[in-house]
Amino acid sequence: MDSIFKALNDETRRGILELLRQKDLSAGEIADEFHISKPSISHHLDILKRADLVSSEKKGQFIVYSLNTTIVDDIIKWIITLKK
């Protein structure tokens, strides 16, 4: 759970998740939406992958990233238990 909250603690990573909420994207497509270097985007994607918030699939010469909604559902359920 710590890796999830570390991943969510960054504005750029939250922005990446928002983009992936709309549709699956390649790293290049994601990088085009931010004013930071492509290696920095790769670093952010790696952190999101290690937290299991995104998954990736190689399609031809590109890697396409998608939001892992299962882990998001688990986080929401856990947060709801804090309210009880």
TrEMBL record:
Residues 1-84 form the HTH arsR-type domain. SMART domains: HTH_ARSR. It holds the Pfam family HTH_5. It comes from Flavobacterium amnicola. One of its GO terms (molecular function) is DNA binding. This is ArsR family transcriptional regulator. Keywords: DNA-binding, Transcription, Transcription regulation. The keyword Metal-binding does not apply.
